[in-house]
Amino acid sequence: MTETTLLELIGISRQFPGVLALDHVDFELAAGEIHGLVGENGAGKSTLMNIIGGVVLPDNGTIRLHGQPVEIANPAHAHTLGIGFIHQELSLFPNMDVASNIFFSDLPQRVPGLVDIKQIKQKTRAILDRMGLTEVQPTQKLGSLSPGRKQLVEIARCIAQHNEILVLDEPTSSLSDRETQTLFNIVRELKNQGVSIIFVSHRLDEVFEVCDRVTVLRDGKKIDTVATKQVTHQELVRMILGHEIAASSADVVRKPGEVVLRVESLSRGRLVKNVSFDLHRGEILGITGLLGSGRTELARAIFGLDRMNSGKVWIDGNRVYIHSPENAISHGLGFITENRREEGLLIEKPIVDNIVLANLRSFSNLFGWVSSQKERQAAEQQKANLRIVTPSIDRLVKYLSGGNQQKVVLAKWLQTTPRILILDEPTRGIDVGAKEEVYHLIQQIAAQGTGVIYITSEIPEVVRLCDRVLVMRDGAISTSMDRGNFTGHEILMAATGGNVS
To answer: Where are the domains of the chain?
Structure first.
């Protein structure tokens, strides 16, 4: 411990049924420091942060705050100690206005029992202006905001509480590039004011941009703590994985076949405008663009989640009418949504139930009775094929790491043997090692003849994986480029409306 140490965790261990999540981990946070915390899904990051936030109690170890031993009993206690925690899953109230969300736990009062509405609005306006959110109104319903704006409101709430320590868990996962830079400016300002920040992220470029030091966890153990200026990206990846990434692991040459999906003049309100494209068998077709460009809305309309206003769809040369997800599945489509926890998984159910969910008919007899033996055989096979790390297919999905949850979603759709698989941000929120595995799985799927639509905001993924790319802007396709004829710079220029130079 040094003179500047604010928070110190010594020999922290925590065990869950069948899993040693933390194994004698040390962690130190200095006053006025931005400290990164990285590691693969399942490395122990969330457990460590939950201990700091009072969500989970350690089995062993010592916590010191300002040099004094402390037991953080619960989140309310953490709050009284000046610790603010912004989880990846937001804890806001969509039916309340922005001001009430920000000051929910500490409403200013004129007299006891009477809330000072005017003061709440004035304080909210000041915080929003400070954060550059001039277009957000204190009286605006939170539910009307974009996911990125909601994330920033959550951060505003922690700022209003004047916390001494702020824990940010994947804070940029729902933010646009502009919102991310706004967040970074706020984080730096808070640091200058003496606030200490723990920054948990899978995006290593962000860690290098904003953090002073970074601690690496692997398999529940602390690997090292280093200054970001004294470590390279490659060295940090090696520390996270314990080995190098094979440069050619996702560079497979494919020969796409005939057209499997044709979309003609599809429109969906003001979000998707007259979009037409072909997808070939065995092809990975990238669709990218800025937040709000219409990528997700296009996928939802194709899959029947949202009703298209106009347009035609052909599968294997036959005109089809898709009005529901069930209808889409019957035509050989699968769709991995952007929000896997809310839309792609039953997190309170076992792995086996999730894997067979989209294809229950194949496990039923003529009388509708489901064979649990066949379900388990199929789930065990998918577990082996996709290398899902779990002691049992009966384990609840909520206890899996993000990367393994994503594999369960993939397994669910592979069980339907889709001809067309749509993936919306399939690597969001998973670590660098899990990403490599997902890349490999997607390429295997394409190599077996499935047409893949790969929607992502990560331009390096497009360059690395995709045979073609469609760039969307303002609900329409602005550019179509073939592999070998596009670079990351060209894709970014097309997405932003700039000129390629």
So the answer is: 5-241, 258-332+418-432+446-501, 341-417
